[in-house]
Every structure is written in C-alpha cells, then in structure tokens.
C-alpha cells in the first residue's frame, strides 16, 4: 500500500498543522527509517493480520503495518492528528480510524494537549506532574484540555476482532489501556518513560495475569530489540529500573506462547 504522498505534502503546508510538520517528515520523508520499521515489525505482523495502533499520532506505524499487508485500527483522540490520519489513509478501506482515547473503561476522559508538541499530549495528569522539572522535559507545556471519548481494548476487540499485535503509545496512560483488556493476545508493545517507571511495572503485572511470558525492549526510536534474550516480567522490571534517566523512553515488546521474534 502506497501512502498518499500528495496528502502528506498538503498537510505539511497548512499553517494550522505546523506542529505536526516534524512528525510528518519523520514518518513519511525518511525512507531509511521506514524500511527499518518494516523489517522490525515483520517479526510481529504478517500479511492479513489485524493490528491495533493505540495512539496513532500521524500514522507512521499505520503505514508500516499496511506495507506489511495488515489491516489496521488506528485509535487517536487529537483533532490535528485525526485530520492527518484521515487525509493520508481515508481512501484505504483496510484502515479504520477511531476518534477516541483508549483506557480502563468506556466513557469520557480529560485529555491534556501540548499544542506545540502534540506527540506528548496525554490523558494522564500524573504524567504532567512527572514531567514538571524533569531533565529533558524543559519547555514542554500542556496548554489546553479537551474532553475525549474513551474506548477500551475489549470494546475494540468486540467491534473489529482479535488483533495479532497491538502497539500502545499514550504518554503515561499505558497502564489504564491495559486495564481495559481482559483477554490474552499474541503480542503487543507499550511505551515506557524513565520519568514514570511505576507505570511500566503496573503494565508488566497486568500482562503477566493475561498470560504474557516473554519481554524485550527497544530504546528510544530504535527499530531493533535491545536485549539478546527475551526476559521474564520480573527480569524486565529490574532492567527498566536500572536504565539511566537519559534513556528517556522506549517500548517494551511482550509476547505470549512460544513465538519469539529474533533479538539482536
């Protein structure tokens, strides 16, 4: 599936979407990054699979999952990001864009918007508190609040079917997203940050109860697994606690059953 490049260029040129320009460039104007992303996710996603992208932002992962032949449900609450997703993927029948946050229960949720840097907008008030004064987070300002519809992973499964892979990147709300899941899945990833490590512990605890048995991680925006072996939840928790603050963020990859994509 080819991304609508003309739509990307139109979005880049709109003054109202200037805050998304860096994200759009990273997502759609860096072929090397796109190729690395495809090679990495091919360990988790196969043609014909269903994938959920929770916190889809401008859709760089959506594009990768589509290039791998998967059907995608893209979940995103931010109006500016939704505008980008619909412009780029609106003509693709294999992408469903869901206008919502994802959390522990259906309803409404207060969403904190960072207008200058929408990629760190969040539904977690605790995340804002953790970022205040933290090294590497200077200058970030959540200057607006909106009320967003909130769905759950269980509700998405009921509507769209069971996914082969779920990517969760919601800036400190990952534990709430996993609270809304009550059934096992083959694989998923969740973002962690070094300013809120207890969230990762709660995620690991929840995933253990759901039957996940293998854990690895990618640091920052790296498209490779950082560890040579898949770890238990306890060993992954210890590894995350030991990471230096400067790592800032990354993604924990979690699998159930015996399938283990290759590590480095």
TrEMBL record:
This is Methyltransferase FkbM domain-containing protein. InterPro entries: FkbM_mtfrase, SAM-dependent_MTase, SAM-dependent_MTases_sf. SUPFAM superfamilies: S-adenosyl-L-methionine-dependent methyltransferases (SSF53335). Gene3D superfamilies: Vaccinia Virus protein VP39. NCBIfam families: fkbM_fam (TIGR01444). Residues 53-187 form the Methyltransferase FkbM domain. It holds the Pfam family Methyltransf_21.
